User: Fold these one by one.
Assistant:
Number 1:
Amino acid sequence: MPWLYLIVAIAGEVIGTTALKASDGFTRAGPAVIVVIGYAIAFYFLALVLRSIPLGVTYAIWSGVGVAAVTLIGWLVYGQRLDGAAMLGIGLIVAGVVVLNVWSGATPD
């Protein structure tokens, strides 16, 4: 169950961050409400995850997957450009998350 909670926490954070861009500095009410709800969901489920998965591992996965997802959404939705260095950096973040989950003994089974 903690892995499902982590997925929900990541989704909440990605939705909240994406809406943060759309809120235009909290001047647009609809996206601003989505920001608050998204982050509330993210932090609630992140707290549940921390009951079972170590803090460092949880945060590395949450932030790494979140960064990659938000970057992809920025590219697809907002037309933000990614150069080779940006793509390499995101690839390294994703590789780090894979290494943590596949080869590290720090994550629970």
Number 2:
Amino acid sequence: MRRAVALVGLFGIAIAGISLSVMPTSRSVAAANEPRTFLIPASDGYGVADCISTKAECGKIVANAWCESQGFGKAVAFGVANREDFTGSVTKPSPAQAAEQPLSITCGE
């Protein structure tokens, strides 16, 4: 009786292994060679707005790190977002609103 149970268990494990090896392997990729733009609030609390908005060297490092954390290779472009890229672009910006403009990071590759 023990041999029969062991044999059934062995066949079950073998069939499960075969079914897993036959299944198609699908790799989850963030983007298939398509650049993607992310809008980040300028007042995110991390202090990266100064680097990204002035396009300083530290901005490139921050933008590349952001893209890598989102599953992309590196940043293609970064800076202050255009008013057309986010909601609320109908009115003319005042100096107070300019400080609230979100940051834009475009990731690719």
Number 3:
Amino acid sequence: MTKVSMTVNGKAVSGEVEGRTLLSSFLREGLGLTGTHVGCDTSQCGACVVHVNGKAMKSCTVFAQDVAGAEIRTIEGMANPDGSLSVIQQAFQDHHGLQCGFCTPGMVMSAAALLAENPRPTEAEVRHYLEGNLCRCTGYHNIIKAVLAASGQDVTKIAAE
């Protein structure tokens, strides 16, 4: 067992992990942060996306010990300081960018990373950036709309797929 320490959602945390413990497992089982979902265990679905030092990363593809000392942000850390929804979370709610909700944490985390890099992406850029996130319930129309709305763009003219 190895002791790992990192900052998760602004709080210093530590725990004992085996060398093979994935970051997703450490977050969910070690810290009780179950908003980070694991849908495939093969890095295909994107439900496990978190931010590691500000960059989107699929947490099922990295060992917890490999990100020791890093700053991690999960979906639980996305809300505003007063507990209200972030702009991105609110846009997903307002524009029905979710259905069952399983993929939503990963989508929100990926969208936040995109908007940090590119504050006013085009529809094509949003679609390209979210290619690593799968939604099994719905088309991506409202997800794309939500991301564009979170960027402050007018989404009333976006045609349905």
Number 4:
Amino acid sequence: MTKAKALRGLVLAMGYANVAIGLFHVLLGNAATPGARSAGPTVDSLERFLGAIFAGYGLAWIWAARQSPIPATAVRWLACVFLLGAIGRLLSLAVHGWPHWFQVVLTAIELALPPLFLWLADAEEAALRPADGHAGR
């Protein structure tokens, strides 16, 4: 598989996964997060709001995947936002201790995927560049 195909598949998968996860949180609120069922109406409201934002974030990934070529700048920004989420989780771990095991798994994924996306970000753009590296000549 070429880097360009890997990028397209991962960007699409990221988009659909984030839309699905976001809508899941909008629909279920606290019940969507392990260990948060009794967090109360304030956290439930926040959970549903952030679920909608997460779904919108997924739509941004899908938008990027539908471009030709996939814009490297968009991939880099979206990957960095994802990494920022992981940093937030690490901050929470430092301040409050270990969360539910599933959150630890998500943190590992959120730390692993951004470097992969940053490595692949310009794969389609690079594949479409002329072999001599000079556009328009």
